[in-house]
Amino acid sequence: MRFKHLHELNTICTAESKTIAELMIEEQVQETNTPRAGVVQQMSDYYQVMKEAVHKGLTEDTTSRSGLTGGDGKKMAEYIRQGETCSGDASALAMAYALCVSEVNASMGRIVATPTAGSCGIIPGVFISSQERFGWSDEHLVNGLFCAGAIGYVIANNSFISGAEGGCQAEVGSAIGMAAGAMVELRGGTPEQVVHAVGLALKNTLGLICDPVAGLVEIPCIVRNGLGAVTALAAADMALAGVRSAIPSDEVIDVMLEVGSAMPSRHRETAQGGLAQTPTGRKMMEKLAKPKAKRAEPESESESPGENEPEAKA
Amino acid sequence: MRFKDVFSIIGPSMTGPSSSHTAGAARLGRIARQWLGCTPERARLTLYGSFADTYQGHGTDLALIGGLLDYVTDDPRIPDAEQYAEEAGMEVEFFTSGLPAPHPNTVKIELWHGERKCSLIGASIGGGSVSVHALNDFRVQISGEFPTLVLRHSDKAGVLASVTSTISSSGVNIGYMQVDRKARDGEALTAMEMDGVPNPEMLNRLRSLDHVLEIRVIDLKRGVEPDAV
């Protein structure tokens, strides 16, 4: 790839009068030696999976295997039909769709990781609700996914995208930054505005811990997807209005790495802290506890997998 | 770069609920199955870190079993993988370990089929991407993003030269290569991530080289070779 940082994305695209989506497609073709049509087709297939997940969340039972969650996406959609919403119909619909996809995920249905499964609701929520509102073609939205992918590629390679590594800021936060930036490009904003949208969005998720109740990708993950979709729309609006991220977005990504690395492990997807260890969170976990039969140390275990070199991390 | 391309960020299409715990786990299981070369008769999986803490709620166990059955990340059978494993005659045991691991989501997979045994240690590094650190206790660094050729061979002068010249004459570029050996003159293992898919003719020529003991192709995009055992 010709870029590793957001400022490089901006410089190359501005110099060559390209969208970030176009640059990402060209780089993907070059890097993987795959014809352009194949690359675009795969992304297009992913977009269809996202649409199916929204539809499934709106029409089918999404009660999770634990029984803790499901049906909130439908509730939101019904609420929007009944009258004026507090946050505006555009925000509310993005939220409803994001909840739907996240609930399909929790019920072991099919979704696309964007960038992860825990954050899989935000991009479809923002994209599909905006497509309906602005009458965009699928092709336009598929381009938007390439733009989101370019942003995520930068975040993932300079910081992290998984809750276990960097907390929920890395997971839901990355998805919000990706959706915000892509939304700016979809609305015709410049690459520079895209980059500012990412910084504006990421700054507001710094320090967000990953604290899934009972270790499940349900509480608070699903609701964070819904609210994350709204944050992405808001950050896109700020950037399109000309608001800049005073701290350059690449530096915000570096801070995400710093903050995430400093987080104690109990706040990184282990269910040992945060909401997971509230009295209610603990009760839910106890209720769901499965018998630990047969689950013990293997008799012949003699070596730690850590004897190999540690994973390169900051 | 830990994440290689746009589809390691957008994607994979997968069965929920966690890209690290289900998609990444399914891929690690599938790589292990391809390394074995067939459906295992027995599998022992040891989970470390966050994998050990939360694997049941996340369906990590089901996804690993699905991978061992060669299921792709969005295979609808993953939620019922335990039942399919039983039907396939595959005996699976899970263990958790408190020992330190190189990554919070690490699994050690040991597989048996008849006389054949193999092992893998790998981590799910986020968004469904994986990193395999060890095959049969040899150090490797495999992402599964590219077709990967794994050679067991003897540690003899000239083996690698003949291997790479055979590959070069087939016109396929090697993107990344790692060699490790048990001891001087002992067993060695070479893993190569390739820019293209190795063709059967190249594989046959490699198999016939002196000191080459075994060849496996790990390729998550194309699927597994027919059972080799």
Q: Could you explain how this protein is built, in words?
A:
The complex is a heterodimer of chains A (314) and B (229). Chain A is mainly α and 314 residues long. Helix content of chain A is 61%, strand content 1%. Chain B is α+β, with helices and mostly antiparallel strands and 229 residues long. Chain B is built from 6 helices and 11 strands. Chain B has helices spanning 19-36, 49-58, 60-68, 81-87, 159-169, 200-207, and strands at 13-15, 42-48, 91-97, 105-113, 116-126, 129-135, 138-142, 148-154, 174-181, 187-194, 212-218. A 6-stranded mixed beta sheet of chain B has the order 3-2-4-5-6-7. In chain B, strand 6 and strand 7 (138-142) form a beta hairpin. The longest helix of chain B is centred in the first third of the chain and has 18 residues, at 19-36. Chain B is globular. Residues 224-229 of chain B have low confidence and may be disordered. Chains A and B meet through helix 2, helix 3, helix 5, strand 1 and helix 7 of A and strand 1, helix 1, strand 2, helix 2 and strand 3 of B. Strand 1 of chain A pairs antiparallel with strand 1 (13-15) of chain B.
